[in-house]
Amino acid sequence: MTARHDLPSVGTLVHAADLHLGAPLNSLGTKVGEAQAQELRALAVQAFDRLVDLTLAQQADILVLAGDLYDQADYEVGAQVRFVSAMRRLVEAGVRVFIAYGNHDPLVSTFRPAATLPAEVTVFAADRPQVHTVALRSGHSVDVAGVSFGKQHESANLARRFHQLATNPRRTIGVLHTNVGSNDQHGDYAPCTVADLEVAPVGYWALGHIHDRTIQSLGAGRWWAYPGNLQGRSTKATECGPKGALVVPILADGFGEPRFHASDTVRFARSDVDASTADNLGDTLDLIVTQLAELEEQADGRSLVARLRLTGSSAAHHALTTQADLLHLAREQNTTGVLISTIEVATRPRVDRDQVLARDNLQSDIVRALDGVDNPSDRLLGLLDGQISGLADARLRKQLEADPSLANALLTRVETLLIDLLEDPS
Questions:
Q1: Greatest CA span in the chain, whole angstroms?
Q2: Which of 225, 223, 243, 247 is closest to 233 using CA atoms?
């Protein structure tokens, strides 16, 4: 990244996206208990309040919201009322707010607002980017250009429509909901490339849609960035870790490096627990509690929901794979404030591979057969040819091309599962 910390700012921009207001965290009810889920939902709503507080504390000139403010296109009424009230608070403090809607909340004609936004809040129309000039408190000015989705399944490359703008890239903020590089972890809405962003006369691209925070330089004083979503929603990988917004210094001739500020009130985590030192179930439960305590220390005082995966070659493997109420037992032993949503058992039996090879049985034959695979990627794809859908096949091929070691890891896992299946637990 090209940082410009030595240059004084002439204004401040706060960039947030993917607020998903009205999202009820439905999946929590079945994973942590309904009473606890209700408490977490009440806390999660406060993440938006923290964004407003951050914007005011930073004395920001501009707040941009890059899509998916709401979780559904009907814009849940309670969320609307809270949102409009917060917008009034911001504009009264002199903050200009710009909104581009995305795939979760496209601008559709059937929408009937439950509350009226202040006139100082600009909602970008669909189809073509519109440009608004904003006078900063310092006396400088910037242009803010943006476009909303007019339908949920927007397939057009909207970034290219910014190319024709007659704006100064050093003084222009672009607001867009888009999938840069066709990230396969998210829907391919309004897809574009980094080259599309670079060519446009935009100095800071305030993007939304991808829930993983991304900050990339386009050269001195120019950036494109995803702040990630405002509040995590589950233990899916892209929902874990700190969530919040970006604070961007506006310079006299460009933009400074965006700085992340957490706003989440509930945090989600995925964590591996190495059970290789566990001799029995009790040892494993102790290791789980120790890991939860470490996660709690890293949560910055937030409520934390964790998904755990037990790994390693362990003497407790058989007990773990046959313990039907493992999650219940772990929750009973848990002395921390962390809530456990799921425990996945991915341990291996403590079996010496060389000893397996020395045997004259099916296990040893399997290990030798797998050892004889010359090209793991080709072998794996050959085994699966015609057995999985075209989409799954294409995604697997793409992942194997990006990380050839994945094939070895998958075949090793197959070997482990087969050895475990055929091992006599006695």
A1: 83
A2: 243
The CA distance from 243 to 311, in Å, is: 27
Per residue in 312-368, pLDDT tens? 889 999 999 999 899 999 999 999 999 999 999 999 887 767 777 788 887 788 778
Give all domains of the chain, ordered by start, each with its CATH number. 9-264 (3.60.21.10), 266-349 (no CATH), 351-426 (no CATH)
Give me the half-sphere count of Cα atoms (radius 13 Å) on the Cβ side of residue 347.
27
Q: What is the DSSP letter of 116?
A: P
Lookup result for tokens 């996945």: 344
Strands 266-274 vs 313-314: parallel, antiparallel or unpaired: unpaired
Distance CA 147, CA 130 (A): 7
In this structure, what is the dihedral angle of CA atoms 105, 108, 111, 115, given to the nearest 10 degrees? 60
Q: How far apart are CA 216 and CA 219, in angstroms?
A: 9
- Contact yes or no for 230/243 (Cβ under 8 A): yes
Output the DSSP codes for 52-87.
Answer: HHHHHHTT-SEEEEES-SBSSTT--HHHHHHHHHHH
- Residue partners of 103: CB distance under 8 A and separation at least 6: 67, 68, 149, 152, 153, 154, 177, 187, 189, 209
What is the total residue count of the chain? 426
pLDDT tens digits, one per residue of 267-313: 999 999 999 999 999 999 999 999 999 999 999 999 999 999 999 88
Of 165, 170, 87, 90, the closest CA to residue 132 belongs to 165
Q: In this structure, which amino acid lies at residue 362?
A: L
Question: CA–CA separation, 399 vs 392, rounded Å?
Answer: 11
Residue 248 main-chain phi, psi, to 5 deg:
-120, 120
